[in-house]
Each structure stands twice: as structure tokens, then as C-alpha cells.
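Dear V.,

Thank you for sending over the compound details. I've combined the ligand you provided, zinc ion, with the protein sequence from our construct and run the structure prediction for the complex. I'm sharing the raw inputs here so there's no ambiguity about protonation or stereochemistry in the SMILES, which I know was a concern on your side last time.
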Amino acid sequence: MSLRRRLRIARRDGDRCWICQHQLRLDYDPSRPVGPTRIATIDHYVPLSRGGSNALSNLRLACGPCNWRRGNALPDDRPVTTAGGDR
Ligand SMILES: [Zn+2]
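Below is the predicted structure of the protein with zinc ion bound, written out as C-alpha cells.
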């Protein structure tokens, strides 16, 4: 993904992780300390493996830890319950 596209997503999302709201930065300069901010990654709201797209509307700014923790989970993934039986 181009830096320009990533910057666009970062602006839209306010340079914050959409999951934990942590302040993020896209550009990583090893010669300067990152401080309290984290490096930004681009997360797929609906993962590609679950039918998501690369459209801007499906992309979210996320910090590395949140992105990795999510894996391929859907935004509203919940344990499937077999209770009920309204059939
Ligand atoms: Zn986060």
C-alpha cells in the first residue's frame, strides 16, 4: 500500500488506533525516539480472508499489537451460541 493512501487513512482516523485509541504515527524514523506513540499499521475492518476488500472504507488505522491480536476476526465476532431454538 502506498504511503499516500496510508496517510489518507491516518488523517481520516485522526492518527489513532481504531481499537484502543492509542496515538499512532505512520513514519518511523529509528534515529528519533517514538516515545509514547506507536507505529501505525493498516487493519482490514473485514479481513480479506473473510471477504473484505481493499477499499478505503474497509481500512482502519490500528497499532501493531491490536492488529496482530485481532488476526482474522470479524469486527462483531462472537462465540456462536447454539442455545435458543426458535425454529
Ligand atoms: Zn491499538
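A first observation: The mean pLDDT is 82.

Warm regards,
I. M.
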